[in-house]
Amino acid sequence: MDVSVSQLPGIGQKISLKTAEDSMLVVIVHHTGKRELYFFEDADSDEADFAMDLTPDETRELGAQLLGATYQPVNAEQLQMFKKQIVVDYITLTEKSILSNKSMEESEIRNKTGANVIGIVQGDDMIAIPEVSRKLLPGDVLMAIGKKEQVAALEALCKGEE
To answer: Which one of 78, 91, 105, 119 is separated from 143 by 20 to 30 angstroms, measured CA to CA?
Structure first.
């Protein structure tokens, strides 16, 4: 990214940020505190594709968001390690399973397998983060998360292969 700063006599300061994709973001900070934000799809264009005024508070909030003050994405290497360790799978509960017709609490899925049930598809209903009182019925599809061996253990229980 190419950044340039120039003084605007009697107005304030102009900050131009040119991207690798040849677009440009321009911020004009007035002596009064007013901020103008301009976006140019083509950095060589004379007319902005988008413009808006920002208050000082809005400018600080935008800066904080861009700096990652409230959200830090996971880097690609960490994400690959996470993907190798964690599995999310959908498992159908059979009638012969010892989990059938038990509540989430009675089933003790986490204690028996280490996997977590984060959702259930029950007919047309989709239940996110099911309550402990939710009854598991044959035909339910459990959305499970855990290590590969934990999810495999839950799958065996759901098939009645305990």
So the answer is: 78
